[in-house]
Amino acid sequence: MLPARWDIVEQSPLCTKLVNASGVSVSTIEHIMAALAGCGVHNVLIRIDGPEVPIMDGSSAAFVKSILACGLANQGQPIRAIQVLKSVRVERDDAWAELHPAENLEIDFQIDFDDEAIGVQHRVLNMANGSFVRELSNCRTFCRRADVEYMQSHGLALGGIPGENAIVFDGARIESGELGLRQTDEPVRHKMLDALGDLYTAGAPILGRYVGHRSGHAMTNKLLRALLSDPTAYKFIECSPETAARLPGAGVRMAEMPAVA
């Protein structure tokens, strides 16, 4: 059994991978983790018979739909959350990520790519009241054409199909299937989706403001390690009904799920 926990995450720029002391691993967990966080699931056992979570369409949409269709069981226990008490920052070259005290989870993300079709994108989102499901859940993973060619030359991503499970950018050109992008700023929204999934490995919802600049999976995990290794930077709290109502996924309904092409 693998706990989906920050301290057994193997840092990688491409995905989030769990590896236990026996070498058992499962990779690409971030999209299903985001779905769980964004639907308000705080206790779950996932059964998987392979080394990687299926990529589906490159977003969290299929997982979100299944969770909302099944519904949640109230276990009659209080919800515990991690309250950020002081600002924490990690950085590498021109990328950085921060956590700041806040009443509920907020995500502030900026990306900057040379590809004309991506460029600079910035979005800020209060994650309360189901905003993940409405704003981020159907946004797909993306990569550059040069990255695809590099991976395929090394025997990776051989089954990937642009537009079906990833958006591929090549300069000003977008390969995203016949219907194009689901959001004009789909790349930065997907980065926010990834960040929520990676933050879920903290083991409890986070009450704080996440700020990421050119950040990725490894950077968010590094940020969690910095936060949770400093006992003065956070504390566990038992959520009041008012606080629980501000957590991602609280009260979300299937009707809020955006259409997926």
Describe this structure in words.
Helix 1 crosses helix 2. The chain has a single domain, classed as lpxc deacetylase, domain 2 (lpxc deacetylase, domain 1, 2-Layer Sandwich), CATH 3.30.1700. The chain has helices spanning 30-38, 61-70, 131-135, 145-153, 186-199, 217-228, 241-244; strands at residues 9-10, 17-19, 25-26, 80-84, 88-92, 95-101, 106-112, 120-126, 142-144, 167-170, 173-175, 206-213, 234-238. The strands form 3 sheets. Strands 4, 5, 6, 7, 8, 12 and 13 form a 7-stranded mixed sheet that branches. The chain has a 3-stranded antiparallel sheet with strand order 1-2-3, with no helix packed on it. The chain has a 3-stranded mixed sheet with strand order 9-10-11. The longest helix has 14 residues, at 186-199. 24% of the residues lie in helices and 23% in strands. The protein contains 7 helices and 13 strands. The protein is α+β, with helices and mostly antiparallel strands and 261 residues long.
According to DSSP, the number of beta strands is 13
Report the helical percentage: 10-25%
Oligomer: single chain
Q: Could you state the order of secondary-structure elements as H and E?
A: EEEHHEEEEEHEHEEHEHEH
Let me know the CATH homologous superfamily: lpxc deacetylase, domain 2
Summing up helix and strand content along with how strands pair, one would put the structural category as alpha+beta
CATH architecture: 2-Layer Sandwich
Distance between the termini: 35 Å
User: What sort of overall outline do the alpha carbons produce when their principal axes are compared?
Assistant: globular
CATH-assigned fold name? lpxc deacetylase, domain 1
Tell me about the biggest sheet?
A: 7 strands, mixed
Pick out the low-confidence regions: none
Fraction of residues in β-strands: 15-25%
Output mean pLDDT: 91
Radius of gyration: 18 Å
At the first level of CATH, what is the class?
Alpha Beta
- What's the total helix number? 7
Number of domains: 1
